[in-house]
Hints:
- There is one protein chain.
- The protein is α/β, with parallel strands linked by helices.
- The chain has a single domain, classed as UDP-N-acetylmuramoyl-L-alanine:D-glutamate ligase.
- It is 38% helix and 28% strand.
- It has 12 helices and 13 strands.
- The protein has helices spanning 3-9, 11-19, 66-75, 90-101, 148-162, 180-187, 213-220, 224-227, 229-240, 280-293, 298-312, 323-336, and strands at 25-30, 32-45, 52-65, 79-87, 105-112, 118-126, 133-140, 167-172, 192-196, 208-209, 244-248, 254-257, 263-266.
- Strands 5-4-1-8-9-10-11-12-13 form a 9-stranded mixed β-sheet, with helices on both faces. It has a 4-stranded mixed β-sheet with strand order 3-2-6-7.
- α2 packs antiparallel against α12.
Amino acid sequence: MSFGDRLRAEADALADLLDRFAQTPVLVVGDLTLDEFITGQTERISREAPVLILRHETTRQVPGGGANALYNLAQLGAQVYAVGIIGDDSQGQVLCQQFRAVGVDVSGVVVDGDRPTVTKTRISGHARQSVTQQIVRLDRKSDRPLGAAVVEHLVAAITRQRSQVRAVVCSDYHEGVMTPAVIQAALDHHLVVVDAQKELGRYAGATIFTPNVPEAELAVGYGISERGLDSLGRDLLALTQAQQLLITRGEEGMSLCAPGGDHADIPAFNRTEVFDVTGAGDTVVAALTLGLANGGSFWQAAVLGNLAASIVVRQFGTSTTTIPELRQSLQQLLARI
């Protein structure tokens, strides 16, 4: 059956899943990041050094990393429980304010005064009547291992909230939160979705992983062009012991890999209006998780994840989508096939 035929056959089921997203309890464990976007207009070259001088126009602060995953879930109507770390600083306060504004439970967020809130500041500029472009990115973070007391607090928060949710999301941006003890506590649930940039084997036994192609290639040690997608999927499933893999492939869409080497390709729903892919993977994870948590098949959940990503890449910077937007996009997609 072609993708289009299958989509038409399961359209009602996909719409029903969207109706059930609201109030789905989900626990997100991961690296909480603040994404900061500063934009300005180019005035001239500095006399002090060969650098641009920008006249400040806007500053926008939004959840990033694992914080973006949980914020996407909240915007899709889920009841989200957050577990992670922030610093004792203004950036951490901003993140918690944004979480509370969309109803996220922040009782599992630990304030660690020995490290800053992970913050990624993107400075962009433009001339008159020109496109805004990123010039430089400034990162604030700490590479020091977590203290034993902080790890204990994280594990306790996961253990306390794990029984209240239908799914656990591990959002690992390699910023230090996902220690072996934290991972083990998070994996003790029947539905665990893992979005990790590297060392995927640490999450062996999770339900589904969502690597992009470079992350998948890094995990197995060879390129997709060398041995093919079937081999890559089979070897990655053996490494992760997952039930399924969803490999995101940019303009080629996504591939859902099952044990035995079989895979189902889901085409990209939006190839022409891609302005910024920042945070799109977190959006995929959010919609995928809610689809699975509400009884959808892996294929149905992956389609909804792909649909959600096709919306957010139309916007500049880290962004989210909503149920009405997903319903509208689903109808538009059905009309095109």
